[in-house]
Design brief:
Elements lengths: L3 E7 L2 E8 L5 E6 L9 H12 L3 E5 L4 H10 L6 H18 L6 E7 L1 H12 L4 E7 L17 E6 L3 H13 L4 E6 L11 H17 L3
Parallel strand pairs: 3-4, 3-5, 5-6, 6-7, 7-8
Antiparallel strand pairs: 1-2, 2-4
Length: about 220
C-alpha cells in the first residue's frame, strides 16, 4: 500500500495526516514539535528512512488548520502537553482500528515538545506502544508520566544543544523503562549540520527495528 492522505476523526475535530503502511507490520507515529506540522522536512526525512527499512509511518497534524491560525498569534497550544498527548492517543487508537487485521506494532517518534506528548501518550496506552524515540525533544515536559512509561525509549540530542541536553538528562533519570541516550556530536537543536539528521534517522531505525520487529 502506498502513501495516502487520511482524516483522523477525534472528538469534535478532524486531523489531517499521511499514512503509509509498511511490509513489516511495524508503524511509527510522528509527533511534531512546536510550530511544525506533518510536513516537517526533518520528520519527513526520518520517515523515509524508516519506510526504506520496511516500516510504516503516520505523520499527522496535532492541531486543526483553524487552531494553527490562532496558534501563530497566541502560541497557547504548543506547550499544552495533555492536549497533544490526548490527540496522539486518539490517532493511535484510530490507526489500530484501521489496521486491526494486520496486528500493527506501534512506535512513537517525537520531536521538540512532541516528544513530551509522545511519552505521556506512551504511558497512557502502554499495551499499544512498543518503542519511543525523541529527537531534540523535551521529554521533561512529560512530568510524572515519565516513571509510568514502559516502552523502550531512546533520547537523541544534539551535542551543541546544551540546554536541551540537561533537560534530557533530567528526564532520562526519571524513566524506569529500558532506555538509552545518544548525543550526536556537532549537532544543534534542529540537526541541520551535514550528516547529523542522517545519524538521527539511522539511530531511530535501529531502535524501532530492535524493539518492534522482534516482537
Amino acid at each position: 500500500m502506498g502513501k495516502r492522505e487520511v482524516t483522523i476523526p477525534l472528538r469534535e475535530i478532524d486531523l489531517e495526516g499521511e499514512l503509509e503502511l509498511g511490509k513489516s507490520g511495524s508503524l511509527v507515529i510522528f509527533a511534531h514539535g512546536s510550530g511544525s506540522s506533518r510536513h516537517s522536512p526533518r520528520n519527513q526525512f526520518v520517515a523515509r528512512t524508516l519506510r526504506e527499512a520496511g516500516m510504516g509511518t503516520l505523520l499527522f497534524d496535532l492541531l486543526t488548520a483553524q487552531e494553527e491560525v490562532v496558534e501563530e498569534r497566541t502560541a497557547h497550544l504548543r506547550f499544552n502537553i495533555p492536549l497533544l498527548a490526548e490527540r496522539l492517543v486518539g490517532a493511535t487508537r484510530w490507526v489500530l482500528d484501521e489496521g486491526s487485521d494486520r496486528g500493527l506494532r506501534i512506535g512513537y517518534f517525537g520531536a521538540s515538545t512532541g516528544a513530551g506528548a509522545a511519552l505521556v501518550a506512551a504511558a497512557q496506552v502502554r499495551d499499544a506502544v512498543g518503542a519511543v524515540v525523541s529527537r531534540g525533544g523535551r521529554p521533561d515536559l512529560a512530568g510524572e508520566a515519565l516513571a509510568q512509561v514502559t516502552a523502550p525509549t531512546l533520547l537523541i540530542v544534539g551535542g551543541d544543544d546544551s540546554p536541551v541536553i540537561s533537560l534530557n538528562e533530567q528526564a532520562y533519570a526519571r524513566l524506569r523503562c529500558e532506555k538509552e541516550m545518544r548525543i550526536v556530536r556537532g549537532a544543534s537543536h534542529l540537526f541541520e549540520e551535514s550528516g547529523t539528521l542522517e545519524t538521527v534517522a539511522s539511530l531511530a531505525a535501529r531502535w524501532f527495528a530492535g524493539h518492534l520487529e522482534s516482537e
